[in-house]
Design brief:
heterodimer; A: 243 residues; Rossmann fold; 6-stranded mixed β-sheet; 4-stranded antiparallel β-sheet; B: 281 residues; alpha+beta; Alpha-Beta Plaits
């Protein structure tokens, strides 16, 4: 479904942001991308939605290759992805419902089906009662839920979340994370960049740890050796490095 | 349809910015329009003076009218010549008296010779052409003298050249300034909606879809700005006409072209501004 092969990214001024990045994500998988600030988590997510192209190597997302994808193909791909950011990126002058609706309108979804889809997405994130509220009237957790509803409204096969809990308090973080788990349980893959180590440690999901633009740990790859050495079970879930 | 709705929504949400955009475009085009007004008036004035460029061949006393007619037919076939008129002694006297007004009495009958007046075609009134025609007219035996105001033809021609070069240079400068100001105005509108654009792109809207509302916005602002600029220029022209001097205004074709130029600049400015923005996100 998603595959990165020997991906490197170099910026003219900032230098090498990523090097030798190779991993694959299966359908319906939940993956944490962890690492300190500047380790390359966001750059990888940008490459997955083709907001950035690798300097070398290849990113393959649902058959779309970073080497050959044109503007139209990228637009079509993004319609099947859900993207969530730390800063929510909601339009302040539109209600929660209008923010979600906007994502469908701009890709030309027929008006007749928009209402039902928007309602379903808001129900999924538990915000139907706040449909007519403006972002300024919502808490941080609620705003992130609206952003998640917007990302889900077009039934994506994968949700890319860049520090979705970064601006939230403990309680809201737990709520948003539980929502992402539910979304994953219903079959949507989730790739979540975070530096919240507690969140990573408390869950059993696959973890890819980055440092200085390189993968320093991938729980999926270390699993067999860890299992054989420590007797299986959850032992392969090595604790990510404390940065 | 959504593009039009988005354009209207954006204007409703930021009416001040939209109005500022239209007014900025209008004033930029107004400055260009004022320059255009000066340019066409100078051109018209020069054309009127140029129309008076003529070569006059004075006839020797007693020249047979048949010879003059044959020569006039001959000269009329010169490629540079538009028209040849015969001015009899009486006509020359009447004209001179009319021009002199209260001093009309100084002329007596028979003082002024008959002549032929050779009018040249538009665009063929340069000093070189005028001199060449005058030289050819001089070759007729019955022509006593040829006058064409050599010095002022040259001065007029030089003035016309200076006006053309200065006009083109200034016109380009004004147009460039107008395009830069309009581009900056549209860029402001694009930046005001930067978040919206980035969301549109992230959810999979095509670049054309993202661009369309801005192109419509640019077109409408350009059209309104052009119309407003035309109105300002018309008022300015009316004021000049009433209090200072008589001027000519743009003909309908030029007015239409002006408004069209406003719309075109609006669309192009939007296209470039949004394109730059799309490349940067």
């Amino acid at each position: 479904m998603i595959r990165l092969h020997e991906v490197a990214k170099e910026y003219p001024r900032a230098g090498l942001a990523l090097s030798h990045i190779s991993f694959a994500v299966r359908k319906g998988e939940f993956v944490f991308l962890t690492g300190p600030s500047g380790s390359g988590k966001t750059t990888i997510l940008k490459m997955l939605y083709m907001g950035e192209r690798p300097s070398s190597g290849e990113v393959l997302v649902s058959g779309v290759s970073s080497r050959t994808a044109g503007g139209r193909q990228i637009s079509q791909l993004r319609r099947r992805l859900g993207i969530v950011f730390q800063d929510f990126r909601l339009l302040e002058d539109r209600t929660a419902e209008a923010n979600v609706r906007f994502a469908l309108e701009v890709i030309g979804v027929p008006k007749s089906v928009i209402g039902a889809k928007v309602n379903r997405a808001l129900t999924q994130v538990g915000l139907v009662s706040k449909a007519t509220s403006y972002p300024r009237e919502l808490s941080g957790g609620e705003q992130q839920r609206v952003a998640i509803a917007r990302a889900l409204v077009n039934d994506p096969f994968v949700l890319l979340a860049d520090e979705p809990t970064g601006n939230l308090d403990e309680r809201a973080t737990r709520g948003v994370f539980q929502l992402l788990r539910d979304i994953n349980a219903s079959g949507t893959a989730v790739i979540m960049a975070t530096h919240d180590l507690d969140l990573v440690r408390r869950s059993e999901y696959r973890t890819i740890e980055l440092n200085h633009g390189r993968i320093v740990f991938d729980s999926a790859e270390s699993a067999p050796s860890a299992q054989s050495a420590e007797g299986g079970g959850k032992a392969h879930m090595r604790t990510p490095t404390d940065w | 349809m959504l593009a039009i709705r988005e354009t209207l929504t954006a204007s409703r949400r930021a009416p001040l910015l939209s109005a500022l955009g239209v007014v900025t475009i209008a004033f930029s085009l107004f400055a260009f329009g004022l320059f255009g007004l000066v340019a066409i008036n100078i051109r018209t004035a020069l054309e009127q003076v140029e129309q008076r460029v003529e070569v006059r061949g004075f006839l020797a006393d007693g020249t047979a009218i048949e010879s003059v007619s044959a020569a006039m037919k001959d000269i009329g076939e010169f490629p540079e010549v538009a028209r040849v008129d015969y001015v009899s002694e009486e006509q020359a006297l009447a004209r001179a008296r009319k021009e002199m007004g209260e001093f009309a009495d100084v002329f007596e009958a028979g003082v002024l010779p008959a002549s032929i007046e050779v009018h040249l075609r538009v665009g063929l009134r340069s000093p070189r052409v005028v001199k060449s025609v005058a030289d050819r007219i001089r070759t007729y035996q019955f022509i006593d003298d040829v006058r064409y105001g050599e010095e002022w033809v040259e001065k007029l021609y030089r003035l016309r050249n200076i006006a053309t070069i200065a006009g083109t240079g200034l016109g380009l400068a004004f147009a460039t300034v107008a395009v830069i100001i309009i581009g900056a105005t549209i860029r402001m509108a694009v930046l005001a909606r930067a978040k919206e654009i980035s969301i549109m792109r992230l959810v999979g809207a095509t670049d054309m879809f993202v661009r369309l509302p801005f192109l419509i916005d640019g077109l409408v602002k350009g059209l309104l700005g052009g119309l407003l600029a035309l109105l300002f220029t018309w008022f300015a022209n009316r004021t000049i006409n009433r209090y200072f001097l008589e001027t000519v205004f743009f003909d309908p074709q030029l007015m239409f072209l002006g408004i069209l130029a406003g719309a075109l600049i609006g669309v192009l400015g939007s296209f470039v501004s949004v394109g730059r923005h799309l490349r940067s996100i």
